[in-house]
């Protein structure tokens, strides 16, 4: 039998760090990653046959659990007709219509292949449409690995302690301004100063890459008003929150309408998909309707569209998001109770089926607070949970995700493990 360790040794010889995406490598939490052989429902099984309750969910897409038959069968049907056409196909049109129906601010959409492509393309559109060069982002928010965003970026970059990446030209980074998330005053000041040069302000409407930090009450409305006042486009990066925190995403949950929205993860049903969309007058400026160039050999791929459409059918079931939110609350409340019982300073955040675990007694609302939490304690907790068959995101700065396959029994099993893990982490 192949072991996780043997595979990691082989992987490290040929893949940088042994992985194809940094946070998978477990560097933040210590140890080596396990290699998944198969996944089903709320579980992953590694190559050694160990089973894990999975709260990573492929980093967000698997909101109906792994290997859901409705999604898998849609993919199987699509595959029989061919893998890629290079011409338009009906599934792309249905996908665009579905997104526009579920997220009304998205009047037109362009499909791409990842969240990174979506955000890179959205800021090109913002720059092209406004004729301005600067963009504004928030410290601790992650928008993929496009050069313009690797300026004090969070998530993987934060975990690895490289707030800016070599290879990003300083001249380009100069055009990205960074604000503290959830700070009303700082946003007002910055836009009062340079608002006339800002093409777009991009934000995760619920921050999910500095752990999980919901917006303060009125914060997204404040950003909306500032952008309108200064003629900058408001871009919601809903790659993580889209179809997760509510059927209509964070913009529906908080009642704020952005000019442009980016998507990924859930809309691909587990296949490599992203999308950006928004106001018709803006989207009509994208080639070939307009002059702003953006293209993709595999964009709108028929198999990926089939997976995404099947996933979007499932999340439209009546009460789907309410039930997920209820179970997420059960999980968070249960974890809080065991942490309190063990005398561990601990707090949780959650919006819909997205949650954050923080080793601190403070209510968390800012990036500075998130980074001040007890990271070594989180790492001990992570490893204690993993030993007990529960896989949390392998970094103190990532959000957790629940799926509809996480039944009350699965949550109860998680809490059993957590009871011991808190005690172990404290020791
Ligand atoms: N935007 C957000 C909010 C994300 O969480 C991510 C990835 O985690 C991205 C963009 C980048 O998406 P991808 O990894 O598909 O390129």
Automatic annotation (TrEMBL):
<keyword id="KW-0627">Porphyrin biosynthesis</keyword>
<dbReference type="InterPro" id="IPR004639">
    <property type="entry name" value="4pyrrol_synth_GluAld_NH2Trfase"/>
</dbReference>
<comment type="pathway">
    <text>Porphyrin-containing compound metabolism; protoporphyrin-IX biosynthesis; 5-aminolevulinate from L-glutamyl-tRNA(Glu): step 2/2.</text>
</comment>
<dbReference type="InterPro" id="IPR049704">
    <property type="entry name" value="Aminotrans_3_PPA_site"/>
</dbReference>
<dbReference type="GO" id="GO:0042286">
    <property type="term" value="F:glutamate-1-semialdehyde 2,1-aminomutase activity"/>
</dbReference>
<comment type="similarity">
    <text>Belongs to the class-III pyridoxal-phosphate-dependent aminotransferase family. HemL subfamily.</text>
</comment>
<dbReference type="InterPro" id="IPR005814">
    <property type="entry name" value="Aminotrans_3"/>
</dbReference>
<dbReference type="InterPro" id="IPR015422">
    <property type="entry name" value="PyrdxlP-dep_Trfase_small"/>
</dbReference>
<dbReference type="GO" id="GO:0008483">
    <property type="term" value="F:transaminase activity"/>
</dbReference>
<dbReference type="Pfam" id="PF00202">
    <property type="entry name" value="Aminotran_3"/>
</dbReference>
<dbReference type="InterPro" id="IPR015421">
    <property type="entry name" value="PyrdxlP-dep_Trfase_major"/>
</dbReference>
<protein>
    <recommendedName>
        <fullName>Glutamate-1-semialdehyde 2,1-aminomutase</fullName>
        <ecNumber>5.4.3.8</ecNumber>
    </recommendedName>
</protein>
<dbReference type="GO" id="GO:0030170">
    <property type="term" value="F:pyridoxal phosphate binding"/>
</dbReference>
<dbReference type="InterPro" id="IPR015424">
    <property type="entry name" value="PyrdxlP-dep_Trfase"/>
</dbReference>
<feature type="modified residue" description="N6-(pyridoxal phosphate)lysine">
    <location>
        <position position="265"/>
    </location>
</feature>
<dbReference type="GO" id="GO:0006782">
    <property type="term" value="P:protoporphyrinogen IX biosynthetic process"/>
</dbReference>
<keyword id="KW-0413">Isomerase</keyword>
<dbReference type="GO" id="GO:0005737">
    <property type="term" value="C:cytoplasm"/>
</dbReference>
<keyword id="KW-0663">Pyridoxal phosphate</keyword>
<keyword id="KW-0963">Cytoplasm</keyword>
<comment type="subunit">
    <text>Homodimer.</text>
</comment>
């Amino acid at each position: 039998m192949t072991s996780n360790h043997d595979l990691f040794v082989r992987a490290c010889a040929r893949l940088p760090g042994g992985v194809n995406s940094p946070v998978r490598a477990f560097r933040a939490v210590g140890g080596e990653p396990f290699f998944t052989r198969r996944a089903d429902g709320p579980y992953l099984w590694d190559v050694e046959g160990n089973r894990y309750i999975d709260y990573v969910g492929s980093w967000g897409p698997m909101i109906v659990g792994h290997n859901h038959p409705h999604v898998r069968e849609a993919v199987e049907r699509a595959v029989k007709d061919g893998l890629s056409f290079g011409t338009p196909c009906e599934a792309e049109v249905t996908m665009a219509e579905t997104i526009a129906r579920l997220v009304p601010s998205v009047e037109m959409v362009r499909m791409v292949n990842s969240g990174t492509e979506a955000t890179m393309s959205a800021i090109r559109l913002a720059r092209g449409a406004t004729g301005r060069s600067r963009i504004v982002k928030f410290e601790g928010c992650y928008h993929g690995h496009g050069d313009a965003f690797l300026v004090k970026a969070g998530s993987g970059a934060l975990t690895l302690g490289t707030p800016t990446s070599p290879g990003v030209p300083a001249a380009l980074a100069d055009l990205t301004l960074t604000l503290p998330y959830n700070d009303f005053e700082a946003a007002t000041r910055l836009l009062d100063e340079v608002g006339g040069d800002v093409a777009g302000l991009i934000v995760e409407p619920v921050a999910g890459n500095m752990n999980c930090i919901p917006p303060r009450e009125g914060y997204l409305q404040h950003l909306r008003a500032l952008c309108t006042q200064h003629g900058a486009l408001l871009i919601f990066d809903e790659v993580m929150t889209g179809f997760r925190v509510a059927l209509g995403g964070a913009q529906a949950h908080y009642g704020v309408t952005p000019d442009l929205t980016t998507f990924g993860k859930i809309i691909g049903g587990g296949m490599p998909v992203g999308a950006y969309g928004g106001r018709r007058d803006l989207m009509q400026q994208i080639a070939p309707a307009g002059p702003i160039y953006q293209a993709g050999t595999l964009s709108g791929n028929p198999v990926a569209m089939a997976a995404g459409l099947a996933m979007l059918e499932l999340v439209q079931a009546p009460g789907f998001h309410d039930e997920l939110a209820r179970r997420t609350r059960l999980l968070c409340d249960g974890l809080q109770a065991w942490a309190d019982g063990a005398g561990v300073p601990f707090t949780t955040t959650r919006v819909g089926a997205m949650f954050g675990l923080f080793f601190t007694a403070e209510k968390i609302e800012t990036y500075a607070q998130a980074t001040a939490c007890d990271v070594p304690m989180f790492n001990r907790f992570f490893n204690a949970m993993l030993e007990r068959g529960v896989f949390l995101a392998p970094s103190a700065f990532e959000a957790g995700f629940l799926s509809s396959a996480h039944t009350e029994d699965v949550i109860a099993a998680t809490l059993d493990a957590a009871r011991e893990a808190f005690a172990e982490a404290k020791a």
